[in-house]
Specification:
By secondary structure, the chain is α+β, with helices and mostly antiparallel strands. The chain has one domain: Cytochrome-c3 Hydrogenase, chain B. The chain is 46% helix and 14% strand. It has 16 helices and 9 strands. The chain has a 4-stranded antiparallel β-sheet with strand order 1-2-3-4. Strand 5 and strand 6 form a beta hairpin.
């Protein structure tokens, strides 16, 4: 009698290997949304050694790009918040930049400074949280994550006061920002920036020389620079592999050419380098914030000529990209002259950075797979668009 579909489904997932033994195929996940999102890894093991890994996603697909082609340009702004929901303000900026390129919209100087301040605060809270999650996946009791979330709360309180929401901020507008940062908001930002160096020092004292972190991260999940470049990897993952590429330096979008900051690079491309690059990037973001908060000028927070109603760009196309906390976030738009984009396409760093997960995990023990995965720093809202 032939095997039924149910019997085949319930059959133990083993694979014969030349009659000498068996490989074990394990489905890790789908995990609870409170981790990195609803995600699964199909792993093939030889004992405890990984010989094959396939990322499986699609559990959270929300038809984001298709929605972008059916609603108005401005109506799409709050949808961008739901991509990388840890970094809604940088999502807003990348989309606003694409539309501004499409229509040739100018942005006032004060609005550019506000965007930089909010983007660098977003980068700091993202990197701190990523490190907290990474250490938890190594088996930490939660102390590093709580340290990170303590500082993140201060930043989110500022975002809520300014935008009305902690995470889904819907703040950027074509030609500027929705509301101005008052002196009270700027003083709150200065207070946060003043306290962050102590936090980063404490974070490093807790983690950087920690024997367990070093043992679980050094030499693990190595990503070679040539593979990183060929796979289109960007952000801290690329720079941890020693590739000097930061869109803030390459494109000088906004007003980043006015600020003095360095681009931290790794030497080995392992998990430890990805950890250290994020720590050093937080310190560089602090330098940018100090300069921006000192030099922010008076003036309008949005171009008075910016169109809000009846927004119909002329036929054409544009690609706007920024250095989001996770890497290059880009929006590609095609206009046919209507009220909605003819084509709305996203270049998400989480999805593209995930494509080398197998390469980093081959040869590792199964216990290290989750740690390698955590060092990538993804959010499934951005992967499953």
């Amino acid at each position: 009698m032939s095997e039924s579909l149910l019997e085949a489904w319930n059959r133990p997932p083993t694979i014969e290997v030349d009659g000498e033994g068996e490989l074990l195929e394990v489905a890790m996940g789908p995990h609870h949304p409170s981790t990195h999102g609803v995600f699964r890894m199909d792993v093939v093991l030889d004992g405890e050694r990984v010989i094959k890994l396939k990322p499986v996603f699609g559990y959270l697909h929300r038809n984001h790009e298709q929605i972008g082609q059916t609603v108005g340009y401005l109506q799409m702004m709050p949808y961008t918040d739901r991509l990388d929901y840890f970094c809604s303000l940088t999502n807003n900026w990348a989309y606003a930049l694409a539309v501004e390129k499409l229509v040739g919209q100018a942005v006032p100087e004060r609005a550019e400074y506000i965007r930089v301040i909010l983007a660098e605060l977003t980068r700091i809270q993202n990197h701190a949280s990523t490190i907290g999650f990474l250490t938890q996946e190594m088996g930490a009791s939660g102390t590093p994550l709580m340290y990170a979330f303590r500082e993140r709360e201060k930043i989110l309180d500022l975002f809520e006061s300014l935008t009305g929401s902690r995470m889904m901020c819907n703040y950027m507008r074509f030609g500027g920002c929705r509301v101005d940062m008052t002196e009270a908001h700027l003083n709150a930002a200065r207070k946060i920036v003043t306290g962050l160096p102590r936090f980063i020092d404490e974070f490093e004292n807790l983690l950087t020389s920690n024997e367990i972190l070093m043992a679980r991260s050094q030499g693990m999940g190595v990503l070679k620079p040539d593979l990183a470049v060929n796979a289109g990897i960007t952000g801290p993952m690329l720079r941890a592999s020693g590739v000097n590429y930061d869109i803030r330096k390459v494109d000088h979008y906004g007003i980043y050419d006015r600020f003095s900051f360095r681009v931290p690079l790794g030497e080995h491309g392992d998990i430890y380098d990805r950890y250290m690059v994020r720590v050093l990037e937080m310190r560089e973001s602090l330098k940018i914030l100090e300069q921006a908060l000192k030099d922010i000028p008076a003036g309008p927070f949005i171009d008075p000529k910016a169109k809000i109603r009846g927004f119909k760009p002329k036929p054409g196309e544009a690609y706007g990209r920024i250095e989001a906390p996770k890497g290059e976030l880009g929006f590609y738009l095609i206009s046919d002259g209507g009220t909605s984009p003819y084509r709305f396409r996203i270049r998400p760093p989480s999805f593209i950075n995930l494509t080398v997960l197998e390469d980093m995990c081959i040869g590792q023990n199964v216990a290290d797979v989750v740690v390698v995965f955590g060092s990538v720093d993804i959010v499934l809202g951005e992967v499953d668009r």
